[in-house]
Amino acid sequence: MAGRFRGPLIVTSLVLAGGVLIVAMCAGLIERKPVLTDADIVLARAKKALDRRDFPTAEKLARDALDKGTTIQGGAWIVSGEAIVQQGRFEEAVECFLQVVKLSKQPDRQAMAHALAGDVLARRLHRLGEAETHYRQALELEPNEDNARRGLITLLAAEGRRQVAEEILLSVIRDAKATEQHLFLLGNSEWVINSLSFKTREGDRKVQRQEFLERARQAVPDDPVPVIGLARLADVKNQSARAIELLESVLAADPDQYEAWAMLGQLLARTGDARRFLDWNSRVPESAEQDARTWFARATWAKHRNEERVGARCLWECLNRDPNHLAANLQLAQSLDRLGRSADANHFRRRAAQLSELVTLLRGLAGDPRFGEERTEQRVQRLVELNRQMGRAWEAVAWSMFVLRNNQDLQWPKKHLEDLRPYIEKKGTPRTIKLFTPLSRVDLSDLPAPQWADATTAAKPDTDPEKTAFGPIAFREDARATGLDFLYYSDAADPIEKSRLPETVGGGAGVIDFDGDGWPDLYLAQGSHKPVDPNQPTTRPLVKAPQTPPRDRLFRNTADGRFEDVTNQAGVLQTAYGQGVSVGDVNSDGFDDIHVANVGGNRLLINNGDGTYSDETEAAGIAGNQWSINGLLADLDGDGLPDLYVVNYLAGDNVFMPSCPPDASNGRPCFPGDFDAAQDRLYINTGDGGFRDMTQSSGIARPDGKGLGVIAADFDDDRRLDLFIANDTRANFLFQNRTGMTGKGVSLLETGMKSGLALSAEGEPEGCMGIAVGDVDGDGTLDLFITNYIGQSNTLYSLEQPDGPAPATGFFLDRTRSAGLFDNGFDLVGWGTEFLDADLDGDLDLLITNGHIAGHVREGERLEMPPLCYRNSGTGRFAVVPARQLGKYFAGNYIGRGLARLDWNNDGRQDAVITHLDAPLALLTNTTPRTGHRLVLRLVGTSSSRDAIGATVTARAGKRTWVTQLTAGDGYLVSNQKQLVIGTGTVNRLDAVSIRWPSGLDQDLGPVETDRTLKVIEGRKPLILGGKN
After folding, report:
1. By CB count within 10 A, which of 166, 228, 347, 800 is most buried?
2. Which helix (H) or strand (E) holds 116?
């Protein structure tokens, strides 16, 4: 629900000290003589005029003092220059300040004058190159000149030249003059500044960074450094082509800009353009070879060419230049795992985890509410500990001193300072002490360096083969026409500003065959008028209660193109604050039961087998009292009974507050960072109608999850169901199922970091929501697609199995860019998502529903957003299907949330149901005119759980193989129809179909004709349902 911006930390403003400091400096230049001359007295009057803001008088008196021969000439030129600045004559002001350089023989006075000239050149005249020259001249004269350091740091950060700024930042820290902002800038090199705030006599003057750089470019068209900053901003906005164009123009004008070389290499490597990247690589100057980003670009290219050993070497070289490069640490760990060097990989993985935690803490402490802006002693202490563990002694010392300035009685920062003293007292101690990095333990210089001669040897990029036999993919919105009249209830008084967090999540849908007639029905979770607990604090007056209390709804598929509301007949009386819906056969009686996740108190509805339901929550013991988002029913301990995993989101009594902090007079909308994470729960089915809470003993107890999505699937082919949890702004979890291996009952081991699923390829935790699972590239393994917050893109994790006998633990790689799934979702907030073969050509396509979060919509963003449909080319590469082709629904904008997959009319084409906020539910009927052949399988376990979650089907025809698995939880807030649809394209007869059941049984169905639905009971001959579809 909240997220990152592809690694960078977004900062509202960075302060550049200016006019206010000039007066203070001027005072230092006015030397106090025992006897003042008449000219000196005139200068004193000039300064008083300046203080009372009478600038013309101040200028005249300062000039008079100079004409009369004042003994304080430097001070007179400073006062004159400041008065002229305030009158808008900036060129003259610069000349006034530079007069001090000519007149003074003292380096500190000359340095001060250069700094003042730099300030005017930067913030008034926008001549950044000249400003940088004067700042650097000031530091050559006086390395500790504070105004020059502050000005240059701000200038370099605005220009996106953060590597150059690092040494200057360190000098400020070494002198114990660092502000929090300096520490934030140094702590995260990807920090992006949105605006600059200048201190002036009139108060702070804020200017957008984009505007500031554009002015600088206009002021001096030949100055390359503002263009570097504009390129960086374009990159952050995912405008890669624009960024490349800008950087190439920089290097054409000034080939010595090594940071531009490094940035350009990264962008070209991501595009996969062999000619342009290899041309860049052949021309990289020696100065750019020392930039870590140059080597990271090469590592990206090596990955594109599948040169694992070369890529690992490039990442190692990158870290030798910057051991704090988060993405390089993470990717090198993954690469070493694939090279069979897991012991070495662990060192880099540990550092990546530390860096990721550090960046998240810095974001929160810098004021980003998505990551928790509360400034507690414990959070800063953790910041100090992380810096110390990673060998960043100076930053650990600076943060310790920051804490002591606020509370001198604390002992732990004093202990850190004492322990770190030997390191910081040693002359030349770098920012990062190598002894504390993996580089002190792992030497990869024996791996091959890149040897790329020209583009002819480059791997050819995947091309999308032309497919004309099937399609075009199209859907028709049929909710109203079929009788599905449902609107998720919300109390929100103002959908943009006043929504409380639970009102932004939405309600789910469960696809269920509650009457066993073979036609999918729908259970829809409903919102509520009131907070869960009337005593909970809320500052917003309640909206008038509706005449009829909102209730969950059950719609029966009548098998004749309609749905009928049978809520009352079925005895469904649920009025809780509904979120996600899970469907499963809890008691193995052949009838689908329902679990509804609510905000405070979940419900378990048991199917009586006669078309009615009984609420058996209390008897089952699974109600809970937390904010539950979703759950899933699947057999996790291998006893044949479905267990229950519940994903809980945020904890605390104030989740229904419309603004935060709760006691603020003019608060802002609440964010996930304002609340602690709620612990997920695991309930094991005891087989007698009850469940046993195994949260603590099973291994799922984690302190900081904030989960929104969950999947149960067998990722490592060991016939045990693993669990993937998509977390919001925190590292994702992968619980590998070790049940039966430990002798301690159900046992789940968290392996998110090792598996590659915890973070993005950049090493960042993302704002994850929905999950789609399936084999998108045809390699026989399950891939995961995760929807994320705006400015992040969604993420495709591709499962790569190591060589050797199965089962073996594979590794997930972030393949988002190479799959073509990065760009279109970048400016959207993604929620529900599903893989489905829309045209039945044999390759999984992709649906996503999008919509922003009320109260979180910023300038330039929108609340309602369009849905997306991607078509799979057949190689695991995707292209967006145009909305005009897809149908009228896709031309609209919505606040989309849940998305479930089903075939509601049993025609063999996969349909979808989408829930919205403040808009009716949508039923998307697949109307694709030309589709391929298909095989539909409905599996029933006997020794395995009746729902058969985890059963894997393999179908073969000629050289083509399809692998699909029945999973639970995929989508967002939903439960899909429990059937497998295998599109086979032109194949009308499969040579072999086999099922790998969770119980251990391997069942061979032999050759199978397509275009039919088979019901397969574990170990028995399949039944053909209804003949051909």
Report:
1. 228
2. helix 107-123
